[in-house]
């Protein structure tokens, strides 16, 4: 802060310094620091200024928080967690297990009733609740950093952290086995030239939702993929807070830009004020207000091109492979 940086409101680990000729950004996680900016000289000067805290400049990033970084002037940044995946497989006795082509399928239903025992003395062969929680924690970190293709499956097992059963343990292991088969995939970050304009960069979001697929409470799952300058910069997979009464209502909460539900688009544009939808929270009407003010453009996206599909449902291997490419996973 003494160097003129301001803490980001939405991410307390991010600090930003804005000057007339550009910006410098610093991300901090405990004692690890990652810095970038529009002027490489100012980034270098920053590390000189921070020597008072005995900070070691390791040069251009190659590894950060278990994520490997590789840069190419032609293809941009390639991120992967191959080493992290190998360590996880070894820890949970899955290094020699047979790989699988998908992380979750329609047959992976929650019909098992035998709960895992509690206690701290579990092992991969005799798992306890804590063993399950540890594996899911590893999977969650990988899903959040570089692997949106496992986010939906991981979301499924995170809902069982408090009382997992043997079926949940099998599903968690299946996700890990899928990572074993696909650990070489790289998450690519490279701008798209047509997404960069003189007045700024293109910001896009893709939104999708299932419809009451969870038999337990019939709450739908929303998925979203966020892109800046043609690069995927974030994704989410979360259960909706209320039970939707139609596919339109299920998709309304996530509808921002690219949507594959015409009824949800009509609702946003005010073409169909369905009485059934009146209970939808006022914050969803905020989207309609932005559309009216032309601060946001809502477009229809064909289901085959819907990137967020990978975050809301089980998928066959060919479709999963196609969507991996759309969310910038290559390998």
Automatic annotation (TrEMBL):
<feature type="domain" description="Reverse transcriptase Ty1/copia-type">
    <location>
        <begin position="2"/>
        <end position="104"/>
    </location>
</feature>
<dbReference type="InterPro" id="IPR013103">
    <property type="entry name" value="RVT_2"/>
</dbReference>
<dbReference type="Pfam" id="PF07727">
    <property type="entry name" value="RVT_2"/>
</dbReference>
<dbReference type="InterPro" id="IPR043502">
    <property type="entry name" value="DNA/RNA_pol_sf"/>
</dbReference>
<protein>
    <recommendedName>
        <fullName>Reverse transcriptase Ty1/copia-type domain-containing protein</fullName>
    </recommendedName>
</protein>
């Amino acid at each position: 802060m003494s160097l003129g940086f301001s803490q980001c409101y939405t991410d307390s680990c991010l600090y930003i310094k804005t000057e007339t000729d550009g910006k410098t950004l610093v991300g901090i996680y405990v004692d690890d620091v990652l810095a970038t900016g529009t002027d490489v000289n100012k980034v270098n000067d920053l590390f000189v200024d921070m020597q008072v805290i005995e900070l070691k400049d390791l040069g251009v990033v190659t590894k950060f928080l278990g994520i490997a970084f590789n840069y190419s002037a032609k293809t941009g940044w390639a991120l992967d967690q191959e080493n992290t995946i190998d360590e996880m497989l070894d820890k949970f006795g899955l290094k020699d297990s047979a790989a699988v082509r998908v992380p979750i399928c329609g047959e992976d239903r929650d019909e098992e009733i035998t709960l895992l025992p509690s206690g701290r003395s579990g092992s991969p062969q005799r798992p306890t609740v804590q063993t399950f929680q540890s594996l899911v924690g590893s999977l969650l970190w990988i899903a959040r950093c570089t692997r949106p293709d496992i986010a939906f499956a991981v979301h499924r097992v995170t809902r069982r952290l408090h009382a997992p059963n043997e079926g949940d343990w099998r599903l968690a292991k299946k996700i890990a086995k899928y990572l074993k088969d696909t650990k070489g995939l790289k998450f690519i970050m490279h701008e798209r030239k047509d997404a960069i304009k003189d007045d700024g960069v293109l910001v896009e979001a893709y939104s999708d939702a299932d419809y009451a697929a969870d038999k337990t409470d019939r709450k739908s799952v929303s998925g979203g993929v966020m892109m800046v300058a043609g690069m995927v910069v974030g994704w989410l997979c979360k259960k909706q807070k209320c039970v939707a009464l139609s596919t339109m209502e299920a998709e309304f909460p996530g509808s921002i830009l690219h949507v594959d539900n015409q009824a949800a688009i009509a609702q946003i544009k005010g073409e169909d004020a369905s009485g059934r939808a009146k209970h939808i929270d006022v914050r969803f009407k905020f989207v309609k207000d932005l559309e009216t003010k032309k601060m946001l453009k809502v477009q229809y996206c064909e289901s085959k091109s819907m990137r967020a599909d990978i975050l809301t449902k089980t998928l066959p291997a060919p479709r999963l492979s196609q969507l991996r490419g759309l969310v910038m996973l290559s390998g």
